[in-house]
Write a structure and sequence with these properties.
- The structure is a single chain.
- It contains 11 helices and no strands.
- It has 260 residues and is mainly alpha-helical.
- It folds into 4 domains: 2-54; 55-71 and 79-102, no CATH class; 130-183, no CATH class; 200-255, no CATH class.
- The longest helix is centred in the first third of the chain and has 42 residues, at 10-51.
Length: 260
């Protein structure tokens, strides 16, 4: 009967034998692997722990033991060390105890400041030109960023009103701002004007918050009046302009000059 089963189902019998062999071989591989790990730890692990028995050490003492890599030799022939450890109380963690002792950090490296050959001169940040800023020694990207910042403020109806206001720009580094601060001379922005001939740039340049949109709306209102043959004839006519706020109007009242 068994011979008949082997004859009818030879493939299944071979499969059963191959799976059994595969399982046995897998078990043997795992056993040998674990034995190898145990022998390796027993042989090399104790030596590694013994070599680390000198810890804890101070970091400066450890650096003195380690070989030092020389840097480029100067003209005088003196060799400089690649790293210097000064006033450091850092300790290395103990290998066996596994505890880390608190310590002071290395002194942070100071960033190298860009040395610019500045030639500062007295200037008004609201009227200074690109050429004048470049002549003072500023970089091109600083000048471009500053002019864009000033133009954005002007579109909102504001200007640089103080030295601290000038320092608020992010385009020029702080160390250069400190140098230029003593050369800033901001001229008064308010002056007499005729509402019948004033331009939008003049209104925004007053620095009292008359934005680009408000100035354009004022010009459109003036064109409507002039098309009707009226215009601004008195100071009260200027007060009726709704695009100018009451606060702005109170500031400009003393500077309105009709017929000038």
């Amino acid at each position: 009967m068994r011979k008949m089963q082997d004859t009818l189902y030879p493939v299944e019998s071979n499969r059963t034998i191959s799976r059994t062999q595969w399982r046995r071989s897998l078990v043997l591989v795992v056993v040998f692997f674990l034995l190898g790990c145990a022998l390796g730890y027993y042989r090399y692990g104790q030596e590694a722990v013994a070599e680390a028995s000198f810890l804890p050490l101070r970091l400066d003492e450890l650096v003195e033991v380690l070989p030092k890599s020389p840097r480029a030799v100067g003209r005088a022939g003196q060799t400089h060390e690649s790293h210097e450890v000064k006033h450091s109380t850092t300790y290395v963690a103990a290998a066996r105890g596994g505890d880390m002792r608190t310590s002071n950090q290395f002194p942070a490296k100071q960033k190298q400041k860009s040395s610019l050959a500045l030639k500062p001169q007295r200037f008004d940040p609201n009227a200074v030109t690109r050429e004048e800023l470049l002549a003072m020694g500023l970089k091109e990207y600083m000048v471009s960023g500053f002019l864009k910042h000033r133009e954005a403020k002007l579109r909102k109806g504001y200007v640089f009103s103080s030295v601290e206001d000038f320092r608020s720009n992010r385009e020029i580094p702080k160390e250069i701002d400190d140098i230029l601060a003593s050369y800033i001379h901001i001229q008064p922005r308010l002056h007499a004007f005729d509402p019948n001939t004033v331009t939008s740039g003049t209104l925004m340049g007053f620095g009292i918050g008359i934005s680009e949109k408000r100035a354009a709306a004022f010009l459109r209102y003036r064109e409507v009046l002039q098309s009707k043959g009226k215009g601004f004839r008195t100071v009260d006519d200027f007060k009726r302009v709704r695009v100018i706020t009451a606060k702005q109007d109170s500031i400009l009242q003393g500077y309105v000059r009709l017929g000038e």
